[in-house]
Amino acid sequence: MKKIQMVDLKGQFEGIKNEVNASFQEIMEETSFINGPHVHAFQKDLEEYLGVKHVIPCANGTDALQIAMMGLGLKPGDEVITADFTFAATVEVIALLQLTPVLVDVDPETYNIDPDKIRKAITPKTRAIVPVHLFGQVANMDAVMEIAKEHHLYVIEDNAQAIGANYHSKEAKTFKAGTMGDVGATSFFPSKNLGCYGDGGAIFTNNDELAHTIRGIVNHGMYERYHHDVIGVNSRLDSLQAAVLEAKLPKLDIYNEARKAAALKYTEAFKDHDKIVTPYREGDCDTHVFHQYTLRILGGKRDALAKHLQEKGLPFGIYYPIPLHKQKAYVDERYVEADFPVTNRLVQEVISLPMHTELDDEQIDYLTGIIIDFLK
Ligand SMILES: Cc1ncc(COP(=O)(O)O)c(C=O)c1O
């Protein structure tokens, strides 16, 4: 059996090696390292794939979120509602811009922001909602968009974990995750479903004016060379990373299918187990691209299972072990424990299993066998 890895980027590289090596060579020869033709070509390819008018590449997913909020003109003191159960980047940029993060609990099935909790958190200062499509599962965007429309709020989708996922709206339209809100932000961190070989990110929008504003913000607030009209940042996707993404994008659906196949095999192995809750599934599962395959382990056995896997040298991840409202940087007297029953429970029960495009049946059978034996 091949060694089981949490993420296997080497195996995936084999399939795109020739193309990536040729592009790297060309970029070196042409010294077109920044804003070269590969960045432009990837931007166009991604716009077409997502069915969105504008993709603005940038340096990473955290910048993408920050720039999206700057582009919308959010001001210090504005309240931004987001999920308590997510990676810290989401809340970090809200705090950095001196906006007020308002963390709310998540849905116990999807682990995504709970629309009822959003409604309860709205005040006259609320300006935006940031749904995070956690672990690859798209949040309930019909409900989020409805609330946003009713209360005149911006929606910024944190799509770092769900690129390629579909959302079927209640009007029977299908959208790509990240393209429904006013603006979407994604990360191309190497382990992401569409990952480069360093840092990278992008912002998506269908709004021409916002796209124009954001294109200046990523480039020091310049719309004309050396004319700085707004305060900006320096946030670029470099040509080498764009070349990797150009090679991977045509394979993204195949990669996501491979993740789904592995996820369904895990789920089949764990079905009907009284201590294991498998990830939420909808229809034929295309609203989930399994950035992570995350189980809930009931009966207080998660930590013991984690220890057992560690002793056996088997990889796993605990995403995330602490709710954001309890992280030192984000604690606030506004938060009341009773408001976070789901997140407080998830942090004690979740465990993510290896998930990537190269997992084979033998590895999955071995790993699921070990977990089922341990939980007997
Ligand atoms: C939900 C979420 N948001 C934002 C980010 C930030 O992306 P990056 O690491 O590219 O800055 C990540 C990355 O891990 C993420 O998982």
Explain the overall architecture:
α3 runs parallel beside α9 and α4 crosses α8. The chain folds into 2 domains: 242 residues, Aspartate Aminotransferase, domain 2 (3-Layer(aba) Sandwich); 124 residues, Aspartate Aminotransferase, domain 1 (Alpha-Beta Complex), CATH 3.90.1150.10. The two termini are 25 Å apart. Helix content is 38%, strand content 15%. It has 376 residues and is α/β, with parallel strands linked by helices. The chain has 13 helices and 14 strands. The strands form 4 sheets. The protein has a 7-stranded mixed sheet with strand order 1-9-8-5-4-2-3, sandwiched between helices. The mean pLDDT is 97. α5 links the parallel β2 and β3. The chain binds pyridoxal-5'-phosphate. The site of pyridoxal-5'-phosphate has 15 residues, from α4 and α5. The site of pyridoxal-5'-phosphate (PLP) has 15 residues, from α4 and α5.
Please outline what is shown here.
It is built from 13 helices and 14 strands. It is an alpha/beta fold and 376 residues long.
Q: On the 0-100 scale, what is the average pLDDT? A: 97
CATH topology of the largest domain: Aspartate Aminotransferase, domain 2
* Radius of gyration from CA coordinates: 21 Å
Number of helices: 13
Distinct ligands: pyridoxal-5'-phosphate
> How many structural domains does the protein architecture include?
2
Biggest β-sheet strands, sense, barrel:
7 strands, mixed
What is the level-2 CATH architecture name of the largest domain?
A: 3-Layer(aba) Sandwich
- Considering DSSP H and I runs of 4 or more, what fraction of the residues is helical? 25-40%
Strand count: 14
* Range of strand content: 15-25%
